[in-house]
Design a protein that fits this description.
Blueprint (H helix, E strand, L loop, with lengths): L1 E5 L9 H12 L4 E2 L12 H12 L5 E6 L1 H10 L5 E7 L5 H20 L1 E6 L4 E6 L1 H6 L11 E7 L7 H8 L5 E6 L9 H18 L1
Parallel strand pairs: 1-2, 1-3, 3-4, 4-7, 7-8
Antiparallel strand pairs: 5-6
């Protein structure tokens, strides 16, 4: 089994959750791969990130994906087209991504982005402002907001999330079989409930191993 963690938007493999989960996997004698999904942030798209993960997973017959925010959404997209994926752990997954971007930015900022080709974004991994190309939003529009997948999934979300509404995960949990939803008294990052996230994830991952 290959375990791959997909970090969130404007984040990095060194994010708090990525390092926490990698350490917990290491304690179990397992390797959690955490690829950099945006080596060139300015030209990043969903398609470019999906291709990175496919290359990382190449040759594996069994894969479990863990993803945070946009990484969770990417995990669901991959599961819809990769039979090698056996299970998903989705942390505040950014379902409905393209629609939410348009709603959040509003018409004026979206038009400015289209005109200039650049959107200033604070990159949490680099701790500085970066410029995101407009191709990100045009590329995202081709993907379904709620990908169809049949694999077992554990969805973990904070009820006080102001970035990705918990209602999106509630909706996603009802769109397919064998999807577990756990809601925490937390916000989007959920770094204040990391032990609880791991407890739920470990039990879920153990179940996949036993049932496979």
């Amino acid at each position: 089994m290959r375990y791959i963690y997909l970090h969130g938007f404007a984040s990095s493999p060194q994010s708090t959750k990525a390092r926490y989960f990698a350490d917990r996997f290491s304690e179990m004698g397992l390797r959690l791969e955490v690829p950099n999904l945006a080596p060139v942030f300015e030209s990043m798209t969903l398609s470019s990130q999906l291709e990175i993960v496919r290359r990382v997973a190449e040759g594996a017959s069994r894969v479990t994906l863990l993803g945070s925010s946009m990484g969770g959404y990417l995990s669901a997209l991959l599961a819809s087209s990769m039979p090698e994926v056996e299970g998903l752990v989705l942390l505040a997954p950014a379902f409905g991504l393209a629609e939410r971007w348009e709603t959040t930015l509003g018409g004026d900022r979206l038009e400015s982005w289209r005109t200039t080709g650049k959107l200033p974004v604070y990159h949490y991994g680099d701790q500085r402002e970066r410029q995101l190309g407009y191709a990100f939003v045009t590329d995202a529009a081709q993907y379904p907001g709620y990908p169809e997948f049949s694999q077992r999934a554990l969805i973990l979300h904070g009820e006080r999330d102001e970035v990705v509404p918990v209602e999106n995960s509630i909706r996603a949990s009802k769109l397919g079989p064998d999807r577990q939803l756990r809601i925490f008294n937390s916000g989007h990052e959920m770094t204040d409930v990391l032990p609880d996230l791991w407890k739920q994830s470990k039990a879920f991952l153990t179940g996949i191993s036993i049932r496979s």
